[in-house]
Amino acid sequence: MTMYATRTRQARPEPFAVHVGIGERLGLAHMDWPLTITAVALVVFSCFTLGQATQSDVPGSPNYYLDRQAIYGVLGVIGMLLLTRIDYSRFRELRVGIYTFLCASVSLVFVFGFAARGSRRSFELPFFSFQPSELGKLLLVLALAGFVIDGARRGSPVQRTVRYLCLGLAPAALVFLQPDLGTSMVFVVATLAVMYFGGVPWTHFAVIGGALVALVALVLVAAPAVGHPVLHGYQEERLTSFLHPHENEAGAGYQQNQSVTAVGSGQTTGRGDKATQTRLDFVPERHTDFIFAVIGERYGFMGAAFVLSLYALLFWRALRITTLSKNSYGTLVAGGIAVSLLFQAFVNVGMNLGIMPITGIPLPLMSYGGSSVLATFLAVGVLQSINVQAHLSQRGRFAW
Amino acid sequence: MYLRNDDRPQGSRLSLRVAVLGGVAVALFGVLFFRLWNLQVLDGGKYLAEAKNNRTREFKVIAPRGDILDREGNIIVDNRTSLALQLNTSKLPEDQVEEREELERLGELAHMSLPKVRKAIKEGEEVAAGAPVTLRQDVGFYLIAYIEEHQREFPGVAVQRVFVRHYPDGTFAAHVVGSVGEINEEELEEPEYKGLEPGDEIGKGGVEYTYDKFLRGQPGLEKIQVNALGQPTPGGQLVSKSPTPGENVKLTIDPEVQAAGESALASQGLPGGFITMDVHNGQILGLGSFPTFEPADLTPPMSQAEVNALYRNELAPLANRTTEGLYPTGSTFKIITALAALENHVITPSTVINDPGELCVGSDCFQNAEGAAYGPLSLVPALEVSDDVFFYTLGLDMWKTNDLQDWAHKLGIGRASGIDIPVNTDGLLPTRKWRDDLFAEGETERPWSSGDNIQLATGQGDLQSNPLQMAIAYAALGNDGTIVTPHLAMEVEDAAGRVLKEFDPKPQRKIKMNAGTRSVIMEGLHQAAQGPGGTSEPIFGSFPIPVAGKTGTAERPGHADQSWYCILAPYPDPKIVTCVTIEEGGFGAQAAAPAAHTILEAYFHDRIAAESRAEGEGEEGGEAEIE
Q1: CB-based contact (8 Å) between B8 and chain A?
Q2: Which of A230, A337, B235, B534 could hold B528 in an S-S bridge, CB 3.0 to 4.6 Å?
């Protein structure tokens, strides 16, 4: 397999002599530049769009969102660079601590958290609000991957599968109770991704898949029929309204109809400042969940397709890193991160386009929100770390 | 240093899974791109149109309705502005609990209980579904300010400036002007209301109805850019079309005549009606009915109690007794009998008929009023004293033919008058055919007989008519055979008073009548009003203007006699005709004639004043005239 980039073979007088480039001068040798550029491009585009589209959102501060997102972006890049320089394998040893912190932070919101729109999801800190479930997406992957590697030979395959599921579903359940349906779904998907790369047999996935379908049927059909609805009414509506968008035009269907109209009206090259759907409040949450609709309306197919391509590129690089990883832990972590990014991007864009239910999942790096931007950059940083370590170990090999 | 084998990613199994995942990712992105392409490139135009539509809201700006004026330009009906609390039911919250809470809050604010609010909504939707429901009129500023500040708590609630019909003189000419109300579903489908929407006001009854097209005006349009909450964005006024106010309708009503007639009826206190009409062109100078009503009471929103008070009132104040009354006319009918008899050569002006006090046909005997017997009479004295037997005889003479009915029909009895306000009945002229048909169907116990014609000759029996029809007939006599079209509207004006359209309807038909016929009947009426034996001489004997009038005392089964009076003035070339009827008023001279006197006094007010001034001067300085 020649997937690995190979440097020009030279006779080197001593081991570990390296070709000194800019990246190495910065201490960032072997960073995956396409990944970095893609991530930075996404957040820059996000700032640009927010700057243009949210001018009138906060009276007196036309650049409110732009400024803040830029700050989050800068902090995120710094975080990413820091993580690039360390060896991610350390996290495997810290898995118990990470997992505990994850569950604790997600539980504490119930007690100390700030309630907004009926759910307690974040802590109010002096300058921003910290949403532990966003970081939790990364933490879960890091911890669970460790547990999978560690318990790779403990118990029967079924026992292993059940164990991994329990480990993953516990924090997912906590998040679900906040209530935050969307993020809990990401937790579940991340769990499954780690298990997928961890070698859980296909048959087990088939069973899990069947169980999921049954669960959906139970939650959406059977339980309400019996009179014990699991989901809040609005949650259920939001999930199913995309199937019949014209039925509840004033309620749950409204957001999506407006979003679809916004995106469609952008046509090929977008409406620029004439984009009224996303300027005049017709699309709610346009700086967060529905930012893709803003892009669709303002920049048209050109802009929207460009953004989609960036996400495709992001995923490809992440998937590539999965194959490059020097150890299984890295594979699992990279796989978990890659799939959760793909899931979030697909569900969010799909929601904006009216083909996925409304779930409150942000668009990574584009949706406004400090916790999400930071957490995503940290995840990218971990990917970079895996990439760097993979190259370093390969180099070590080839250097012989 | 090699890493331990266990730690290395597992070769082909891994690459299979990676490949599968990669394939899934490709498929997912493919779906997204495809959907994006669909929305933006293929269907983009449609969404663009929707987006543009979203961002504008159109507001209809209500136009003020035109005024209704009398012939001298005084306002009978105009508008005042009112702030109405309106509810757009389609914008209420979907959730039942939230909806109830909002309605409760709203009710508290408007001092209405929740059931009352719901009832108002229900009633509003029955009249005009889809239109904003008016909960209360004339709401105060506090309520308006509160609602505007708390707009979010009251979705669908708005305070709308509306125009409300205003009647400065209360009940003045109520039956003439009619009232306004919201258009209902059936009316919306009619062609004359094309372009109107639920919630629009139209005239219902009277002049408001007939001339609605002129009075209505055109609503204006405001198109503004709004955000998703429906709030106007700054600088977002796109289009502004001012409403076109309705045009004013000037009526033929003379304020003094109308007031005189209304007060004359009111002072008697009995149900009745009057009409004063120009004999040459059909302009109606006064038309009234008693008991009357306040048109302002018919302004929505109306409570059920208010509706009951008006519509279920036993005295029927909403009925227009002048145009829709169904009464026997008594002796006022005699001019028609006389015309028929003269023109068909049944008698001549000098034919003498003996009146022994009664006329018997078989076992039925028809008598004069109060058992009087006047002996031999010709036509003029018969009219003067209102001799019944004379006319019974004429009726008997004409019973085998249709002559009497033909003349009555020509003169407008039992047929549509052509008046320009809605009338729901044309009265009834009893004819042989009519009676015989009823008998054939078993609806009555005998066919046409001489007695029917005898009764008709004196305005009794099955005859059903009203002051309007009688006025037309008398006018025809006065103007020598023209059946005028009675009308209440003179012209349409704009706000500045410029005439936009005049109403001068052509006469409905012309009747040929002999000059001699006319003059002899007129002479008879003149004697009846001012001759020594005239039935209304006590009332009009000393009236300074020569007049020609006829009393009528109609028998109504189950009621006291009905008083009638019809008069043409001045004699011998009348300008106006006045007909009055008063239910249970007794003799014609008792109630109806004095009312007519009051009316004529008002009409001839200036002439009378001038003449009395002249008399006064004449008495003081008679010598001056000799030169």
Answers
A1: yes
A2: B534
pLDDT of residue B222: 74
A-chain residues within 8 Å CB-CB of B39?
Answer: 260, 263-264, 296, 353-354
3-state SS of chain A?
Answer: CCCCCCCCCCCCCCCCCCCCCHHHHCCCCCCCHHHHHHHHHHHHHHHHHHHHHCCCCCCCCCCHHHHHHHHHHHHHHHHHHHHHCCCCHHHHHCHHHHHHHHHHHHHHHHHHCEEECCEEEEEECCCCEECHHHHHHHHHHHHHHHHHHHCCCCCCHHHHHHHHHHHHHHHHHHHHCCCCHHHHHHHHHHHHHHHHHCCCCHHHHHHHHHHHHHHHHHHHHHHHHHCCCCCCHHHHHHHHHHHCCCCCCCCHHHHHHHHHHHHHHCCCCCCHHHCCCCCCCCCCCCCCCCHHHHHHHHHHHHHHHHHHHHHHHHHHHHHHHHHHCCCHHHHHHHHHHHHHHHHHHHHHHHHHCCCCCCCCCCCCCCCCCHHHHHHHHHHHHHHHHHHHHHHHHHHHHHCC
CA distance B127 to B304: 14
**CB-based contact B9 A331, cutoff 8 Å:** yes
Which residue is closest to A251 within chain B, CA to CA? B94
Least CB-CB distance to B46: which of A262, A264, A284?
A: A264
Mean pLDDT over the full length of chain B: 86
Contact with chain B for residue A248, Cβ under 8 A: yes
Tell which A residues from 191 to 210 touch B, by Cβ distance under 8 Å: 196-197, 199
Do the Cβ atoms of A280 and B43 come within 8 Å?
no
Mean pLDDT to the nearest integer, B481-491? 95
Residue in A305, A315, A328 closest to B7 by CB: A328
The reported pLDDT for the residue numbered B296 is 86
- The predicted-structure confidence for B111-170, as pLDDT tens digits, reads as follows 788 888 888 788 776 665 556 777 777 777 788 788 777 776 777 787 777 888 999 998
CB-based contact (8 Å) between A260 and chain B?
A: yes
Q: Could you report the per-residue pLDDT of B252-280, keeping only the tens digit for each?
A: 999 999 999 999 999 999 999 999 999 99
Q: To probe the interface with A, which of B1, B2, B34, B39 has the most A CB atoms within 10 Å?
A: B39
Say what the ipTM of the complex is. Answer: 0.87
Interface contact B27, partner A, CB < 8 A = no
* Closest Cα in chain A to B14: A197
Instruction: Chain A: give the shortest CA distance to residue B116, in Å.
Output: 27
Closest CA to B9 of A139, A35, A3: A3
pLDDT in tens, B557-576: 899 999 999 999 999 999 99
What's residue B627's pLDDT? 39
Is the pLDDT score of B316 beyond 60?
A: yes
pLDDT for the residue numbered A116? 62
Cβ of B44 within 8 Å of Cβ of A281? The answer is no
CA distance A234 to A215: 18
Q: Rounded CA gap, B290 and A85, in Å? A: 103
- Judge if pTM exceeds 0.80: no
How far away is chain B from the Cα of A345, in angstroms, using its nearest Cα? Answer: 10
B3 with A327: Cβ contact below 8 A? yes
Contacts of A250 in chain B (CB under 8 A): 94
What would the pLDDT profile of B159-205 be if each residue is shown by its tens digit?
Answer: 777 888 999 998 999 999 998 888 887 888 888 888 888 778 889 88
Q: Which residues of chain A have pLDDT under 50?
A: 1-2, 12-18, 397-400
- Across the interface, which of B13, B21, B94 has its CB nearest the CB of A250? B94
More confident residue, B355 or B88: B355
Chain B interface includes A307 (CB < 8 A): no
